[in-house]
Amino acid sequence: MKPEQIRTLLTAVKDGATSIDDAFRELRDLPFRALGFANADTHRHVRTGFPEVVFGTGKSTAQIATLLRELGRDGATVMATRILPEVAKEVLSAVPDARYIEPARIVVYGPAPEPTRGRGTIAVLTAGTADIPVAEEAAVTAELDGNRVVRVFDVGVAGLHRLLAHRETVETAEVLVVVAGMDGVLPTVVAGLFSRPVIAVPTSVGYGASMGGLSALLTMLNSCATGVAVVNIDNGFGAGRMASLMNRARTV
Question: Which of 188, 154, 190 is nearest to 175 (CA)?
């Protein structure tokens, strides 16, 4: 349930338009709804301003579809992450009003919010093209939280002139999400060039010695540039949500 829905309901009780019993029935599913296989956190939107997100890996199609319907039942826009195309096809058959954003591997149920919650723009950068799925997860997450997002892809340090060609876009952004695998150096370079907070996202992209993204993670944690914060390997969702909170224009 959205915060504004609770305010509307309480106002209706105060004005006598809704009975206490009817209001109680509306609120009885807070703070969670028991589904047998999961306890859907219907109260998270009220607490944090962002609905519970369904992590798709390890869940059946039926479980994902049920969670989307339950979490979005009161009009909230909800999302499921890490959804492969073949799984998405089955989920959309069960939830026809949902849509699949393939580059981000995200299923969305509910309307896209207007980009009015952020005080500025969030820029999402990648070192290479192979980093785009994680970057899109970050970008779509931020957009679903009501932010304006710009994408600057394939601007890694192997060709630094590509980054400098987007200097104005990066400089005018409020928060930067920088996604990189391989050597993981791009967040340090960006933080050294621009006076903006950088959320660094290591990806599992790379050859054997990258150790599934561990090399990039350690590089980012050991950045010699200031203003760099690091999320976990491939955690585009975490980066997008953190960028949204940093860009928040007002409290919920």
Answer: 190
